[in-house]
Automatic annotation (TrEMBL):
Keyword list, A-Z: Hydrolase
All copies of domain Serine aminopeptidase S33, residue ranges: 34-296
Taxonomic path: Bacteria, Pseudomonadati, Pseudomonadota, Alphaproteobacteria, Sphingomonadales
Classification via InterPro entries: AB_hydrolase_fold, AB_hydrolase_sf, Hydrolase_4
Keyword Hydrolase applies: yes
Name of this protein: Alpha/beta hydrolase
GO function term, MF aspect, one: hydrolase activity
Cellular-component GO terms for this entry: membrane
Length: 316
């Protein structure tokens, strides 16, 4: 078996935090002496710490102290299905976890300067969390200096007819008791996730793409397959909640980075969200696919440089 090429920094601290309902979330801390800023890193659907090992190392070397976690239902956190499907009852569950874990991050890393970086699904959840006036008084929200949204997920990519059909069928399948079952065309982690066609959706870096499969081969418990009908229905509901938020009143500076070769999520939807946020600016990374921080060079360097420049601007 080929061994993973990228590994977490040796001084990364892996732990677990227990949520109110008993679920446990696998966490990561990576301190830095006198950081540019502390960074709460929110990764995407089906991601896990090890998949992001190289990106985490680069962010750390760029001067960031990092707090991160595997979302409930994936990676090393409590699972929600035995099939390995990417499933959730409601995105509100993840937002409640973020309420708790943002407080954990604030208590775990010293210093007043804080950014939050959300990739893909993590970007969707971060936008909802930061843009919700009801969360304005939470300790971490009060300390937050800015948001970085990397290829944020505000709409499904792919052919319009397929997207429309999936969104229409999902609530029917949920009502039939099939919420936790794989949606059409979805399956457990396997050959599809390691196929060259999937790499084209994610990254131009073959090394980063293949490393995910190596980690799953070494630790099968980290794998998450395709999405469930419940996940699709929960996303549709969350998107409506996002549209209803007063994002025009968001007082935080925002850096939104989009991939020029994006096929997995909807860049047009992202541009509409960016236009609603008064302190948002958009940067398009040329020749990049969805996973900007797991891209080949020079695309990944460009994304990292944007993040570091933004951090210095907003944490003066």
């Amino acid at each position: 078996m080929n061994q993973p090429h990228f590994h977490l920094p040796s001084n990364a601290i892996i732990g677990r935090e227990r949520m109110a309902d008993g679920a446990t979330i696998r966490t990561l801390l990576l301190p830095y002496d006198r950081p540019v800023a502390n960074l709460l890193l929110l990764t995407g659907r089906a991601d896990f710490h090890e998949k992001w090992a190289d990106a985490i190392g680069h962010l750390h070397r760029a001067g960031f102290a990092i707090a991160s976690f595997d979302w409930r239902g994936q990676g090393g956190s409590s699972r929600l299905t035995q099939s390995g499907a990417g499933h959730i009852d409601s995105f509100e569950t993840w937002l409640s976890d973020l309420d708790r874990l943002s407080g954990w991050a604030l208590q775990s890393l010293p210093g007043p300067r804080w950014l939050a970086l959300g990739h893909s699904m993590g970007g969707h959840l971060l936008t909802r969390w930061a843009g919700d006036p009801a969360r304005g008084l939470l300790p971490f929200r009060a300390e937050l200096d800015g948001l970085v949204l990397a290829a944020p997920f505000y709409g499904l990519g792919g052919p319009m007819a397929m997207r429309t059909a999936a969104l229409r069928v999902a609530p029917l399948q949920v009502r039939r008791g099939r919420a936790a079952e794989f949606a059409w065309g979805q399956r457990p982690y396997g050959a599809f996730q390691q196929a060259p066609a999937r790499q084209l959706l994610l990254t131009g870096s073959r090394a980063h793409f293949e490393d995910e499969g190596r980690w799953v081969a070494a630790h099968p418990e980290l794998a998450t397959g395709g999405v469930s009908w419940g996940w699709i229905d929960a996303f549709a509901h969350s998107q409506r909640q996002l549209e209803a938020l007063p994002l025009e009143q968001l007082d935080l500076p925002v850096l939104m980075m989009l991939a020029a070769r994006e096929k997995l999520v909807d860049n047009k939807a992202a541009l509409k969200v960016s236009a609603r946020m008064p302190h948002s600016r958009t940067h398009i990374v040329k020749a990049a696919a969805h996973e900007l921080l797991r891209e080949a060079e020079p695309q990944r360097d460009e994304a990292l440089a944007q993040i570091r420049r933004f951090a210095k601007e907003v944490t003066k």
